[in-house]
Every structure is written in structure tokens, then in C-alpha cells.
Design goal:
44% of the residues lie in helices and 12% in strands. It is of the alpha+beta class and 323 residues long. β5 and β6 form a beta hairpin. The radius of gyration is 27 Å and the shape is elongated. The protein starts with 5 loop residues before the first strand and ends in a 20-residue tail after the last helix.
Length: 323
């Protein structure tokens, strides 16, 4: 924000009326006098745009009368997370005159929108997610950076790979070929699905790699062993050891796909698809995040049921024997 303060009226007038609405650079500004202080806020409720000057003020709290969202007058912060925060602007009193900053904004809009996306996903707030994705794009942040933030949130806040992570990755693969309005919709849909999957679910509890550095061939044997006996902790530590040792993506793929394909058509192919999507995700966001992302597929891989365990694959003909 670079605009100078503009004259908004006299302090006596505001004291007499309690609130004033004036024209801002982009949106109306609401001035409120409460508790011997003057506050300047966006007059539009951040939830759905209801004019806040029609609301009520009590004990430093501004209440919107449409959906009863409540806001701290001093900061604009909401007490009802689904409503989002009200933007505020600077205000000064000069010899009985009120002067305000006519623009709303932040010193670093991209960083602010990034922080809001994290908060929106943490509480699964669709409105906050939508506004923060748009805010990052408007600030010039690359779509791939938003995919990275959403993917890392999902990997850290859910024990396992999710449908949302698959959708986010699939849409991320299309970012370079979509028009701007569809890029926004794709990012929003992917981030919202990841947030919904994480809501109320236990966060990932990542294990530590082994201190030793076995050969890739040994790690491959071990991962197949731990998968066959359904030992997720051992399998994850084995995989993390390979990542920590700096194994190339091709070798990490060999480890995981060897263990996954020991079972025939495991989980109807979902286990293999999740691993494949995890690799695609890392191609998008960077392989430096392998330690966060790849362990998310281990639990489902280890727990997957193979077709050889299903009666319909054994009778009347043993189809597994044909594989």
C-alpha cells in the first residue's frame, strides 16, 4: 500500500453518529467509534458481503446481522472462523479530524494469502481456501507453489495417502495446459479435497530412518519382507533409509513397486495407483520433499489385500496362477 491518508470527517461527527461510511480506493470503509477509540474496517462482511454498518457494536465486538459473524473491532479478526477476517486500514486523529488509509491490503499479499491457505486447510474452511488461492494467484505466485503447499499439508496432516492427494496431483499435472480461470478452479478443488480428507483425521507420525546405510538391494528385500508380513513401521523405516541415503527416484520406485506387486492386483489396483500418484506429486513439487510424501503410501501398501486372498479369484478357476 502506497496511498496517502485521506480526510474522513471530524471526530465530533463520528462520536455523534457512532459510525460513518466513506468511499475507499476499492471498497467502502466503515468508521466506528467505540470505547474512546476510532476503528476503520472494510464495510463488506468477508463472509458474503453484507454491509457491516448495518450490524451492531458491543464491547469492542462488531456483529454482522446477516449470518451473525462476529469480529474484533481493533484487528478485524473473526471469532467465527467460517466468516474470515475483516480487512482493516490505518487511521489517525489530527486535531479533531479523522484521516484514514483508503486502501486495504498487506505489505506482502502473497505471504499473507499463503498463511491464510494454511489456516483455511487446517480448519477445512472453503471460503478461506478459495480466497487464499485467488490471493496467491493475484500476487503472482506460481500455481505449482500452491500445489506444493496443499500437497505438503496433506502429507503432514493425514496418516496415509488420500483421494484428495490423488485429485490434487492429477489437477496439478494439468496446470500448464489450463486457462487462468480453470487453473484457479483446479487448485481450489484439489486443496479443498485434501483439507476435507484431513479434517478430524490423525496427523502423520513419521518414523526415523535407520542409522546404517544398507545397499539398495538389501532395502528392497527388507521392504518386500515387511510388506508381506504387514509391518508398517518396519516398512516405513526401510523406505526412509533409502530416501535418507539419497537413492535416485528410479531406485525408490523399484523398492516400492517390487513390494507392492508381490500381491496380485492389491486393493483392486488402488495401492499401485497411490504409489504412482505419489511419484507424480514429487515430480511436481520437488523430490526434496520425498521424505514427507512417500511414507504416506506405505500403510496402505502394507495393509492391501491381494487378489490371491479373494475366493472369486480362486474358484472355479485359479486366476492367480495365470498371473
Amino acid at each position: 500500500m502506497t496511498s496517502a491518508l485521506q480526510y474522513a470527517g471530524t471526530l465530533d461527527e463520528l462520536k455523534r453518529k457512532g459510525r460513518l461510511v466513506l468511499r475507499g480506493a476499492h471498497r467502502p470503509i466503515l468508521l466506528v467509534y467505540d470505547g474512546d477509540c476510532v476503528y476503520a474496517l472494510d464495510n463488506r462482511c468477508p463472509h458474503m458481503g453484507f454491509p457491516l454498518h448495518r450490524g451492531s457494536v458491543e464491547d469492542g465486538i462488531l456483529t454482522c446481522h446477516w449470518h451473525h459473524a462476529r469480529f474484533d473491532l481493533a484487528s478485524g479478526c473473526t471469532f467465527d472462523l467460517w466468516a474470515d477476517d475483516v480487512p482493516t486500514c490505518a487511521v489517525e486523529i489530527r486535531g479533531g479530524e479523522i484521516w484514514v488509509q483508503p486502501e486495504f491490503g498487506h505489505a506482502d499479499p502473497g505471504a499473507y494469502s499463503r498463511q491464510r491457505l494454511e489456516a483455511g486447510m487446517a480448519h477445512n474452511l472453503g471460503l478461506v481456501i478459495a480466497k487464499s488461492v485467488q490471493g496467491q494467484l493475484t500476487a503472482g505466485m506460481p500455481a505449482r507453489d500452491i500445489v506444493r503447499q496443499a500437497a505438503l499439508f496433506g502429507a503432514r496432516n493425514l496418516e496415509g495417502w488420500s483421494t484428495g492427494m490423488t485429485i490434487l496431483t492429477a489437477l496439478g499435472n494439468l496446470m500448464d495446459s489450463l486457462p487462468p480461470e480453470q487453473i484457479y478452479l483446479g487448485l481450489l478443488h484439489g486443496a479443498r479435497k485434501v483439507a476435507a480428507d484431513c479434517e478430524g483425521a490423525p496427523a502423520a507420525r513419521q518414523r526415523a530412518p535407520l542409522v546404517s546405510r544398507p545397499q539398495a538391494s538389501a532395502l528392497k528385500r527388507w521392504l518386500r519382507r515387511w510388506s508381506s508380513v504387514r509391518h508398517p513401521d518396519a516398512a516405513q523405516r526401510t523406505l526412509l533409509t533409502g530416501i535418507e541415503a539419497g537413492l535416485r527416484p528410479a531406485l525408490l520406485a523399484d523398492l516400492l513397486f517390487a513390494a507392492e506387486t508381490d500381491r496380485v492386483f492389491a486393493d483392486n489396483g488402488h495401492s499401485l495407483d497411490f504409489i504412482n500418484k505419489a511419484f507424480e506429486c514429487l515430480d511436481l513439487i520437488g523430490w526434496e520433499h520425498a521424505r514427507v510424501v512417500l511414507p504416506s503410501v506405505v500403510g496402505q501398501m502394507v495393509a492391501a489385500r491381494g487378489a490371491e486372498e479373494a475366493t472369486e479369484w480362486r474358484q472355479p478357476r485359479d486366476l492367480v496362477a495365470l498371473c
